[in-house]
Amino acid sequence: MGDRGGAGGSRRRRTGSRPSSQGGGGPTVAEEEVRDVGAGGDAPAPTPAPDKGEDGDSDVGSGHWDLRCHRLQDSLFSSDSGFSNYRGILNWCVVMLILSNARLFLENLIKYGILVDPIQVVSLFLKDPYSWPALCLVIVANVFAVAAFQVEKRLAVGALTEQAGLLLHVVNLATILCFPAAVALLLESITPVGSVLALMVYTILFLKLFSYRDVNLWCRERKAKAKAKSGEGLPGAGALEPVPPAMGPDLGSSEASHATPLPPPPPRPNLLAASAGKKANGGAAPRTVSYPDNLTYRDLYYFLFAPTLCYELNFPRSPRIRKRFLLRRLLEMLFLTQLQVGLIQQWMVPTIQNSMKPFKDMDYSRIVERLLKLAVPNHLIWLIFFYWFFHSCMNAVAELMQFGDREFYRDWWNSESVTYFWQNWNIPVHKWCLRWARAGMSLVGVRFRVVPGTHPTAPSLHRHFYKPMLRRGSSKWVARMGVFFASAFFHEYLVSIPLHMFRLWAFTGMMAQIPLAWIVSRFFQGNYGNAAVWLTLIIGQPVAVLMYVHDYYVLNYEAPVVGA
């Protein structure tokens, strides 16, 4: 009876622990028996599963083996366990983050009260309600866009030489940078915030017109080269032949007459499908534009308003405007704008104001404390700004214009190196700095192939900044430094001119990314590299903010008092 009772108890335990057919909760007892291994390899071999009776349960005399509950296994936090589901810990971190920031918000409200004042924001843009200098600057920017367009029109028909066109473009681009800077420095009625917005518009216009000029120049060069190759037909020259109109867009009838037909490329869904074209254009199939038919005001202003810095003759187009998607983006823009303004007024401004005295007294411990206190709201606002601008705003503009390429950012938050971060957080600027033109004449919508019997010459790859430096003989290191130098210049351009002071903090911060990138890639790998990138983002920006605010405060508030 004792043995039978023990076996019955074992049978009841095993029956209760057997997983159901719908659950996935762990191995069965039989599986555990098979996997049991003794320490050091001298444990008895696994006992075969006992025989089962008619009711599916094991026999009574299964022995003490049925009572084992231990097996060789690692703790979950050990790296050898292979366990990776830390979702609960991530949720705990989020809860702790929310609670800690809630405490900071409550402390801020108790200490300062409600400081949010939307009306005060208007004074940041206008000193005089009857004077709108920043808006006037933006309107005047159309003059420079039309000037670049007229130069390209005359270059296309041969009314200007390439040297004269280059000179006019250089003068136009230089004026785009110098004219708004002079107005911002000399005109007292323009506010710093208004100056920043106007200078940003002119900076974007500079980059766009630079690309506009480059692409049209490549089109003219390719067109002349294709015409010369098709006319001469010299063997061994690696000639490239354009596709005839039946197979693809042409550059002209003379090129098409000497073309060798190519098989049509595979169709691109969502871009060139006829059904998508009908939805987008009211039943008309999308029309591919070739040079110089692209030189129209409609094409120019579509590019100027499109969320990209790199010009193309034929942009990918989305089939239709999704009204619900657009409405969500617009609501996000409205909500996040108010949230950023509220966080700046309620959280950042008091922290910055309280940081002036430690800077004046050179109290380093208090300076570090204020820096860390400013890092949290500054970083939070920066993250909100990233989502607001790169996702909400740019997607809203792209949806309105049916612009198909929505890759405005990549997974920069997974960056394990500083270089990866700068390559993926701002894709429009990265594409401009490091732009690939498609092989052959795909820039102008024409496909080429190597003529049989000639050299298979590799088509050139054009870029606006990085590749041109490499083609001129610069090393990759020098080319990367050139890219960071240009970025540092524009950062300082957008900060120093509106503040009417030149301290080069932004310039120094950008150039410091070069040694920082080397240090992170050399000494930090994997998750440690990602943590190092996040640390530089969280701490680096507040340092620059405090430097500029301190210098601006000393220059505009303490200096007049001392002079008086």
What does this structure look like?
The structure is a single chain. The protein is mainly α and 564 residues long. Helices cover 61% and strands 1% of the residues. The protein contains 20 helices and two strands. It has helices at 2-17, 29-35, 87-112, 118-125, 133-156, 162-186, 192-232, 253-257, 274-281, 297-305, 323-353, 356-361, 364-401, 418-424, 427-433, 466-471, 476-499, 505-511, 513-523, 527-563, and strands spanning 240-242, 448-450. The chain has a two-stranded antiparallel ribbon. Helix 5 (133-156) runs antiparallel to helix 6 (162-186). The longest helix has 41 residues, at 192-232. The N and C termini lie far apart (107 Å). The model is unreliable at 1-45, 234-285 and 436-463 (pLDDT under 50).
In short:
The protein has 564 residues and is mainly alpha-helical.
